[in-house]
Amino acid sequence: AQKVTQAQTEISVVEKEDVTLDCVYETRDTTYYLFWYKQPPSGELVFLIRRNSFDEQNEISGRYSWNFQKSTSSFNFTITASQVVDSAVYFCALSEARTSYDKVIFGPGTSLSVIP
Amino acid sequence: DTGVSQNPRHKITKRGQNVTFRCDPISEHNRLYWYRQTLGQGPEFLTYFQNEAQLEKSRLLSDRFSAERPKGSFSTLEIQRTEQGDSAMYLCASSVTGLAGADTQYFGPGTRLTVL
Q1: Closest CA to A22 of A95, A94, A96, A107
Q2: Helix H segments across chain A?
Q3: Which residues in B lie closer than 8 A to residue A51 (C-beta atoms)?
C-alpha cells in the first residue's frame, strides 16, 4: 500500500502566484520523519526539509513554508510568489522508526510548472 | 565539499548485456543508498550500505542485480543480462549517521539506463 500520497500529479501556476503542494502519509509508527525533495529537469534530487513526528511547528524558509498536521497526517508545502526556477517535480517522503529509518518511501511526486 | 557523483550519466545498452554504474558519495558519509526511479514515479529503494556492509536489500533487487562497496567509499551497482524493464534512472544517495533519528540523504545526479 502506498504510504505517501501526493494527489496532485501536475500543477501549473502563473509566476508570482502562491501554490500549495499536498502530501498525505500513512504510518503506524509514532516516531517517523518526513522530507520534501525537489527534482529539477536536470534530474538531481535536492533536499529541502526534514521534519520529525514530534515537531509539529510549521517552518518557513524564504518563500518556502511547510505545514505539518499530525491530526490529518499531512505535510503540505507552500511556495509563495512562485518563480520560473521553482518549476520541478517535488517529492514528499517518509522514513519510519520500525525500519530504522533506513528506507525512505517517496510519494509519486507533483510536477509544478511556473509560467512566466 | 563536493556532492554525490555518479558515472556514467547515461548508458544505452542492448538487452542481455551487463552494465555497471559507479557512485562516489560525499566524503566521510558512511551510508550509501541506491534507488531506482522510473518515469513519472518517485524513487524506489533498492539497497543500502553502512560503510562496506550491505545491510538491506529490497525485493526489487533481483538476482541479476549486485551492489558492492568494497572499501566503504565508492559503490558499484551491476546489472547482469539487462532487460528492457531495467530501463530507469538509478540514483545514489549518501548520508552520515547522526545521533538519533533519520539521516538526511543527499542524492547524486543519477545514471539513466536505456535498454534497447
Answers
A1: A107
A2: none
A3: none
